[in-house]
Amino acid sequence: PSSVTQRLLVGVVERADEIDINLSKHRSKKAEIVGTDPATDLALLRIEDPPDDLQPLSFGNSNELRLGEPVVTIGNPFGLSGTVTYGIVSAKGRANVGLAEYEDFIQTDAAINPGNSGGALVNMEGELIGINTAILSKTGGYQGVGFAIPSNMAKSVKEKLVEDGEVERGWLGVAIQTLTPKLADAFGLDSGTEGVVLAEVRDD
User: Fold this and answer.
1) CB-hemisphere CA count at 13 Å for 132?
2) pLDDT of 13-64, one tens digit each?
3) 68-85: per-residue pLDDT in tens?
4) Between the CA of residue 117 and those of 10, 121, 143, what are the distances in Å?
């Protein structure tokens, strides 16, 4: 069966005694943890004494992504720093993948391999529209299905970590599942009815 290979960003950071950020021109800088959000597998780091020529990557709007839109991944697969691969957005809103508590992944066929996690998924305007996080693979290597955390989710997490050092979320105490055509038919609903099924109400 297919297996999901996850590259835990938070787990890597939490186990670290010291964090070094490797930059271009063979430069290395120390970094500190601002905060982590295990529910989305994101961590926010602050570079100590950043160089003057370090330029931030602009956030794009991941909600505006279209299927088939070309994208580029940037990462460090197999220790090969600065590797760039090209592909398209092959799906949006991927959930129930089993990688994180909160999932809304961008799926891409741009090559993502071990070492790409935390790297940028960039649109053709050079904007960050996702953060590479996992692959779906039988072998542990690239097989055309990779996942990225949408930039809008990452930006929201970043802002909360900067403000509070943690991310707090509301809890409804219910379990829901997508209303599929088979479930709609079983409940006697009209064809084409959309929504969710309230599958469970938690105690208290």
Assistant:
1) 30
2) 777 889 998 888 888 999 999 999 988 889 999 999 888 888 889 999 999 9
3) 999 999 988 888 888 999
4) 11, 10, 16
| Contacts (Cβ under 8 Å, ≥6 apart) of 92 | 65, 67, 106, 107
HSE (side-chain half, CA atoms, 13 Å) at 51: 12
Which amino acid, 24?
A: S
CA 123, 169, 197 angle in degrees (round to 5)?
Answer: 85
E strands of 27-119, at which residues? 27-37, 42-47, 70-75, 83-94, 105-108
Q: How far apart are CA 21 and CA 1, in angstroms?
A: 37
Beta bridge partners of 61: none
CB hemisphere CA count around 164 (13 angstroms):
9
Query: DSSP letter at 103?
Result: -
Convert the pLDDT of each residue in 93-130 to its tens digit: 988 777 778 889 999 999 988 888 889 999 999 999 99
CA-CA-CA-CA dihedral for 37, 43, 46, 50, to nearest 10: -160
